[in-house]
Amino acid sequence: MKPLTRLLTVTVLCVAGATSGQQNGDAAPRHPRTINRGNWVGKRVLTKEFMEKVGIQGEQAEKIKTELSALEAKSLKLEESINQEALKQAELAKKVLDEPGASVDEIMRIIERIGQHRTEQAKLAMRLMLVIRDNLTADQRKKASELLASEGKRRIEERAAERAAREAREKNERPADKKRPAAPQGW
After folding, report:
1. Alpha-carbon 33 to chain mean position
2. Tens of pLDDT along 88-116?
3. Is 179 left (phi over 0), alpha (psi -120 to 50) or beta?
4. How far apart are alpha carbons 19 and 113 in whole angstroms?
5. How large is the angle between the packed helices 138-173 and 105-135, nearest 10 degrees?
6. Distance CA 9, CA 2 (A)
């Protein structure tokens, strides 16, 4: 197999694995990435605790929930489409990489569609922020911003601590003679 073909095969398989990988039954259930699961701001805004702290209640709370739920439904459809397209892409990639001269037109169309879906996801994430902006008073936006900023900072600190602990564990688990080899030179 030519080096370029090998590189393309590995790249496509990695992309396909990342987009369509399945967890075994022992792992915790994986939630699809959506507006309210992938975007912690939207998820947080919908909690009772957050709404109480910011002063969101009654009709205002219902309107926010309704609008965010509509965005959530659109996001779920997009994520499902992306996963289906990624599976098609992986199947076609096998054929394209195994058959010299095979047409890449269909796989390129799939890649374009996935890109369009990702753009729509980014637009939905922005719309989420606009729903929040448009449905809160200036005081509520200020409180919400302060709460979200402090929670964001806390989340970053937690991840840094987890990463440091994981790196320390990995360093201590490798015996001295099994340390990672030096990076290849001259590539």
Report:
1. 6
2. 999 999 999 999 999 999 999 999 999 99
3. beta
4. 14
5. 130
6. 10
**3-class DSSP assignment, residue 136:** coil
> Closest Cα to residue 94, out of 2, 21, 12, 17?
12
Report DSSP letters for 21-45, one per residue. Answer: ----TTSPPPPPP-HHHH-HHHHHH
pLDDT tens column, 20-51: 444 444 444 444 444 444 567 777 888 899 99
CA dist 181 and 112 (Å) reads 39
Half-sphere CA count of 150, side-chain side, radius 13 A: 6
Tokens 């001259």 sit at which residue? 186
pTM recorded for the entire structure: 0.61
| Residues 20, 26, 32: CA angle, nearest 5 degrees | 35
Residue with tokens 């269909």: 106
- Let me know: does 64 contact 56? Beta carbons within 8 Å: yes
Residue partners of 32: CB distance under 8 A and separation at least 6: 76, 79, 80
Residue 42: name the closest of 143, 129, 136 by CA: 129
Q: Which of the 8 DSSP states describes residue 181?
A: P
CA dihedral sign, ordered 88, 91, 96, 99: negative
